[in-house]
Automatic annotation (TrEMBL):
<keyword id="KW-0802">TPR repeat</keyword>
<dbReference type="InterPro" id="IPR011990">
    <property type="entry name" value="TPR-like_helical_dom_sf"/>
</dbReference>
<dbReference type="InterPro" id="IPR051012">
    <property type="entry name" value="CellSynth/LPSAsmb/PSIAsmb"/>
</dbReference>
<dbReference type="InterPro" id="IPR019734">
    <property type="entry name" value="TPR_rpt"/>
</dbReference>
<protein>
    <submittedName>
        <fullName>Tetratricopeptide repeat-containing protein</fullName>
    </submittedName>
</protein>
<dbReference type="Pfam" id="PF13181">
    <property type="entry name" value="TPR_8"/>
</dbReference>
<keyword id="KW-0677">Repeat</keyword>
């Protein structure tokens, strides 16, 4: 009897069809995790989908959307650029996704270019209303209107590398290295207006304070409403004990940008200049998923919390920052400096 039973079970095992997951299986799992906002899990599934079918643009586009959700805009843009280069205009949605990412990065000229490219190709597409709204929300100088808005895909890889490098040095307070990269960027990509403000910021903290202040004073004469000039001058004047910093703080207190990077810049500026209550409110409004790649987020948010008596909150923020950014683990908490 036992032999018969073993024989039947053996036949059952032999008749089982092994389940071999394919790209669609991984993709479906990734989408399910994404909808539940489990972004790290979603990214793992989507990576498996891409590994299974490396040339499927749909998988890659979805993976870029996950990177966007966690604030890795440069990585998302790299994927989208690769899709456009390999698939042409087959996946027009990539243009809108690129526009959205560049807007979050504060690269408004690029954002407008890609939004316009999307509308040119899909005037009634799924993202047409979003693209139109994006264009309406962005402000540009008059001379930008004459530019050719075709997507400069051939320069995209190089630009992304420069942006990542400059961002790394700025966040790690490596001012001399940041200046070298930003100088080259100003030559190669003169259309990116934010580069000169990052350059002035690095120049000031590298010790060339008078030159940095003069640069931003000239910039604000040309564009009195520029957010980056106001944040820089507020910081520069405060650090050099000039009361004029309060004028720029008052201007910033009335500004509520739509993009997380710009929101973070205002929050850190308020914390830098002693407006801890206002800074704390702004930090709490930020999407952590977007700004957690910024060391400055943890450094200044924790300080603002500490100054308001939120000691446990401050320690929690600082410890989380140390786990995500090893450089912070080797620093003293900002309130102890």
């Amino acid at each position: 009897m036992q032999d018969v039973k073993n024989s039947v079970e053996g036949q059952k095992r032999n008749n089982l069809i092994p389940f071999i997951p394919d790209g669609d299986f991984y993709f479906t799992k990734g989408v399910e995790a994404f909808r539940k906002k489990k972004f790290e899990v979603a990214l793992k599934w989507m990576n498996k989908a891409v590994e299974a079918v490396p040339k499927d643009p749909l998988y890659q586009c979805q993976m870029s959307i996950i990177y966007t959700e966690i604030g890795s805009y440069h990585k998302a843009n790299q994927i989208l650029t690769d899709v456009l280069q390999t698939s042409g205009n087959q996946y027009v949605d990539c243009y809108y996704l690129l526009a959205n990412n560049y807007a979050h990065l504060g690269l408004l000229n690029d954002a407008r270019k890609y939004a316009k490219s999307y509308l040119d190709l899909e005037p009634n597409g799924d993202f047409s209303e979003e693209a139109k709204s994006l264009i309406e929300l962005m402000e540009f100088e008059d001379d930008d209107e004459e530019e050719d808005f075709g997507p400069p895909l051939e320069d995209e890889d190089e630009l992304l590398i420069y942006q990542e490098t400059a961002f790394y040095h700025l966040e790690h307070k490596e001012w001399e290295k940041a200046l070298l990269v930003l100088e080259e960027m100003q030559t190669l990509f003169p259309e990116h207006k934010t580069i000169k403000h990052e350059y002035a910021h690095a120049l000031f903290f590298d010790g060339e304070k008078e030159e940095a202040i003069k640069m931003e004073e000239d910039n604000i004469q040309e564009d009195p409403f520029n957010l980056y000039s106001h944040t820089n001058l507020a910081t520069f004047y405060y650090e050099t004990n000039q009361e004029a910093y309060q004028l720029h703080i008052r201007a910033l207190l009335n500004v509520y940008p739509i993009h997380e990077q710009q929101k973070l810049r205002i929050a850190t500026t308020l914390a830098r200049t002693g407006y801890f209550e206002e800074a704390y409110t702004r930090f709490r409004m930020l999407s952590k998923a977007v700004v957690k790649s910024h060391i400055s987020y943890y450094r200044w948010y924790s300080l603002a919390a500490f100054q308001l008596g939120e000691i446990d909150k401050a320690n929690s923020i600082w410890q989380e920052g140390g786990r995500k950014h090893p450089v912070l683990a080797h620093e003293s908490a900002p309130w102890m400096e």
